[in-house]
Amino acid sequence: MIHPPEPPHPLVGHWLKRHVSLVSFVLHMVGIPPTILGVLLFAVYASLLSFPIFVLSLSLFLGGFALQFAGHRLEGTDPGEVIYFKRLLGVPYVEFPPGADYLDDDA
């Protein structure tokens, strides 16, 4: 029996609304894998205590994050990690890109 596809999780829809620029989306797609790989390699470093693995892990993590932050900078929004701390401090933040109001679910 063929089942219709399930709708995406609400978090996926929210993430897509926050990354409407093609350049930002591509920077995230390129930056997320090295960020995750850097975290995973840190566990290897912790078990082997190898300085070259530590440097590789740190550079992958920071490089991947830098690409994602560049995407948010180009889009004019704050990254999710920054939004979290701005909310805690009561500081204003920009979650959605300017002109993204056309992406409402109600439309």
Tell me what the structure shows.
The protein has one domain (10-91). The chain is built from four helices and no strands. The chain has helices at residues 10-18, 22-48, 51-75, 80-89. The radius of gyration is 17 Å and the shape is globular.
List the helices and strands and how they pair.
Blueprint: H1 10-18, H2 22-48, H3 51-75, H4 80-89
Helix pairs in contact: 2-3
Quick gist of this model?
By secondary structure, the chain is an all-alpha fold. It is built from four helices and no strands.
Q: How many domains would you count in the coordinates?
A: 1
Helix content: 55-70%
Beta-strand content estimate: under 5%
What's the overall average pLDDT, rounded? 88
- How many E strands? 0
**Helix/strand/pairing category:** mainly alpha
One letter per element, helices H and strands E, the order comes to HHHH
N/C terminus separation: 33 Å
Largest sheet, in brief, is: none
The coarse overall form would be: globular
Q: Point out poorly predicted stretches.
A: none
Number of helices: 4
Alpha-carbon Rg, integer: 17 Å
Supply the key terms.
107 residues, mainly alpha
